[in-house]
Write the C-alpha cells for this entry.
Amino acid sequence: MSTSSIKALVFDVFGTVVDWRTSISTQAAEFGVRHGVSADWDKFADDWRAGYGAGMAKVNAGEDEWKIVDQIHRERLDVILREYGFPTIDEDELVEFNKAWHRLSGWPDSTTGLARLKSKFLIASLSNGNVALLTNMTKYANLPWDAVLSAELAGKYKPHPRAYQRTAELLGLEPGEVMMVAAHNNDLRGAINAGLKAALVTRPEEFGDSKAPDLEPEPDFDYFAKDFHDLADQLGCE
Amino acid sequence: MSTSSIKALVFDVFGTVVDWRTSISTQAAEFGVRHGVSADWDKFADDWRAGYGAGMAKVNAGEDEWKIVDQIHRERLDVILREYGFPTIDEDELVEFNKAWHRLSGWPDSTTGLARLKSKFLIASLSNGNVALLTNMTKYANLPWDAVLSAELAGKYKPHPRAYQRTAELLGLEPGEVMMVAAHNNDLRGAINAGLKAALVTRPEEFGDSKAPDLEPEPDFDYFAKDFHDLADQLGCE
C-alpha cells in the first residue's frame, strides 16, 4: 500500500516497545532478595501481569469505575505478594515497587527504530498504561515520542474503539491517517474496527516459554515487520 | 528554595517557549503576498491572537461548549481576513493557513535550555493549545518534551485551577511537586492558586511594541529567570 495517507504511527507499548517480562522479573528478584523470598521471578512477572486484562475488562464493561493501570497493578500486587509469602511491607516501599512498571527497558531496536520512524511520521504511544507511567517510562527507556498518548485520555481501554478514535482526534487526524503498531493481533483488530490502519511487529521473546506470541498477521493488516527497523525500511524511512 | 520537592516542570508555550508573534507575522506576510494583500503583519498577528483570550473565557464561563484552540483561531481568522480585505479563499488553504499556529519557532534558548532542564526534571508542556497543535509544534520547533500535556485534557483553560490540577494528576504528582514555568504573571498566579510552584521566565520581545511584557515576578513566585539557561543554572542542572 501507499504510505502517503499515513500521517501518524501510534504504538502499543507493553511488549511491543518494551520488554516488560524481563524488566519486571529482574526488579522482582531484587525485591525478593531484600525480603528473603525466593521464587521463579519470570512466573511472578506473569502472575503480576495476569491482573491487567481482567482489571481493564471490568472498567470497559462498566463493572468498575475508571481505574488507572497503576492502580490495577497495585491491586494485583497486593494479592500476589501474599501468595508468594512476602512479609508485611511498608506502604512507601510498595508504592515504589509498583512503579517497577514505569521502569521497563526497550527492545534493542526500540529507541533507534523509533527515531527512524519519527523522521517521516508523527509517532506517539497508544498504551493502556496511564500517562504518568508512560511519561516516566519514556524517560527511563529513552523513547523519542512526539506525544505520550494513552487510553487514559479516552476513558476506555483498548481494544474499545473509543481508545483509538480519541487518539486520532487528539492528533487532529482522521482514523484512516493513523496506523497502530503492535505485537498483538487483538490490539490491531481493535484498531481496524475503529478505522485505523494496522502493522504487526513481531516480538517472539515477549512471553518467554509461558505463552505463544503472535507471529502471523491477519489478512487485512497493512504491514508486517520483524522489528522497528524492518518497519522503517518498508515505510521508506531513512 | 530547595529544588528537592520539585519533580516536574510544566511550561506555558505561546510566548514562553515559542515566539508566536514573529512566526505568525512571517507566515501571514507570505499568505498576503499570495493573495495580493498588503498590511502590517505584526499587527495582523496581534489581531489574530486577540480572539484567543475571549474564546477561552467563554468556554471557561460555560457560555460556549468545549472548543479547541484550533477552532478558536479559525473563527477569529475568518473575521480578520474580511477586515484585512482578503478575497474568498479555498477551504483547504484556510485549514492549512490556520495551522500556522502549529509552526511556531522557539526562542534561541528553548531547545537547548529545555534539554538541560530535562536532565534533572520531568518536563512537559502545559498550554491552552490543543494536543494536535502542540504535537505538531513539538516536531516543528524541536522541543524535547517528556510529555505533551494541554488544557484540552482537563476540559478547562488556564488559569482555571482544573487545568493545572489535572496536569499534576496525569503526571501522578501532587500539585506542589510541579512547577509552572511561564512568561506571564496571570498564568503563574493561576498555577499558585492550584497549588503548584511558579517560575517567571521573562520574554521581553514577545509582544514587540504592542504590549508590555511581564518583567517582574510577584512576591510569592518561587523562581525568576531571564531565560531557560538561567533557570537551569538556578535549579542546579548540568
Summary: Chain A touches chain B through 22 residues (CB under 8 Å). Strands of chain A lie at 8-11, 122-127, 147-150, 178-182, 197-201, 223-225. The mean pLDDT of chain A is 96.
